[in-house]
Sequence to fold (99 residues):
Amino acid sequence: MIRINCPFCGERDHTEFSYGGDASIVYPELDASVDEWHEAIFMRENILGMQSETWHHANGCRMWLIVERDTMTHEIKSVRPAHEGNAAVLSKQSEGGDQ
Fold:
């Protein structure tokens, strides 16, 4: 069982989350060709080891997170908000700033 330490809700079972995919993928513009979209979605490496992934805390705070996880052991190295604005708020709160 995977436990994900949500920065907003604390440690939770992975069943509260939905896997979003490889966080390192740069998707093409909406008006890109079919070939460009095919390349971005289907033609990528199957990473063995540490991978950055997106996870949606669907049954919790509903935030998108970037989870750095080992695909062999499922060990989680880090979890952070996917949106920089949310990360800045958490950082400010941990420093004792206004909420």
About this structure: Residues 45 and 81 are 24 Å apart (CA to CA). Helices lie at 34-42, 84-94. Residues 19-25+35-99 form a domain with the Folate-binding fold fold (CATH 3.30.2270.10). The first helix runs from residue 34 to 42.
